[in-house]
Amino acid sequence: MGARPYLIHPRLDWVFLGAFSLPFAGYFLWKTGKTFEDPDTLKWLLLAVSYPHFLMSYALFYGPGGPWKRHPWVAFGVPLFLLVPLLYVWVTHHEPTLVWMGTIAWPLLIWHFARQAYGVSLWMGAEPGRPASPLQKYLLLGLLLGIGGYGYAFQQQAFKRANLFGFPMATLRFSEDTVFWVRQAFLLTLIVFALTWALDWLRNSRRSAFGLLGFLPVASLWSWFDPSLLKTPIIGMVPVFHAIQYFPFVYRVETNRGGPTRTAALYSGTMVVGTLLFFVIPRVAANQSELAGLLAISSVSIFLNIHHYFIDGVLWRFRDPEVREKLRIKG
């Protein structure tokens, strides 16, 4: 990747891109068993941080200069594919369809978190003039997918039901053997990655092609899905941590285009729209009936989570020259 330009500030990037969630993980490990005593805190964090990050991706994708014309399947095909079953749910109140969509969205969400951590790790670990080898990249991706897969498998085993997208849904209830082997695969990838990094470090005069800062997003992702933290408040804060990791890239693209004022305007606008979509509309629907309110928040949440997954797959391809130009990446 060559020399890495900063996104927000050279002394702040590492906090936003990797270190932010680690103190929370340490605190909740220390306070094992502590539960959320104020659920409104999470609600306001989601309104202020998580929901705007969804809508920022829409602004970058569909806005002026966005890549939507080159990706009609993502721009139109995916939304239509999602709207058909969601409209069916609205008309018939057929909750199993909603559960089916949530079951699909859950692993996509985990994959999305892991894939973002992969890109951020490569960004943070880049050493000027010494790109990571293909083997290191594959092992890093396998390591992060292993963390996400282990977290997902453990979640399915640990909870009989989960309220992930605004409605209760049954988990897949993986067996202990399945979780065990997923964990072994993750640990094996971790060991192989660590050995290849150590050999590269020794072979190149104690200077690896993958810098130590690149491990911060790995540690951050692990803190989101560590089984010992699964029943602590951190599980509800994962979307917030993910969004905080996302913001610096949006900030850099928008600041390169029009300065900090443009970025502030984008954040303000997405926060207003997010409040309407996730708070005002569901509350108005709930005045009609409790089921209508549930369907409103669940439909919006599932639609945005799945579509956002595909949009980000287009927006942040670092190998794409246009993306590199927007982030001012050289080489």
Describe this structure in words.
This protein has helices at residues 13-19, 22-30, 39-62, 72-92, 95-125, 134-158, 176-203, 215-225, 234-258, 260-288, 290-315, 321-327, and strands at 161-162, 169-170. The longest helix is centred in the first third of the chain and has 31 residues, at 95-125. α1 packs parallel to α8 (215-225), α4 (72-92) packs antiparallel against α11 (290-315) and α5 runs parallel beside α11 (290-315). It has one domain. It has a two-stranded antiparallel sheet with strand order 1-2. β1 (161-162) and β2 (169-170) form a beta hairpin. It is 73% helix and 1% strand. It has 12 helices and 2 strands, in the order ααααααββαααααα. With 331 residues, the protein is an all-alpha fold.
Low-pLDDT regions: none
Q: Which range best describes the helical content: under 10%, 10-25%, 25-40%, 40-55%, 55-70% or over 70%? A: over 70%
- Provide the structure class: mainly alpha
Order of helices and strands: HHHHHHEEHHHHHH
Major β-sheet profile: 2 strands, antiparallel
Count, helices: 12
Distance between the termini: 7 Å
Strand content: under 5%
Radius of gyration: 20 Å
Strand numbers in spatial order across the main sheet: 1-2
Mean pLDDT across the residues is 83
Choose one word for the global shape. Answer: globular
Total beta strands: 2
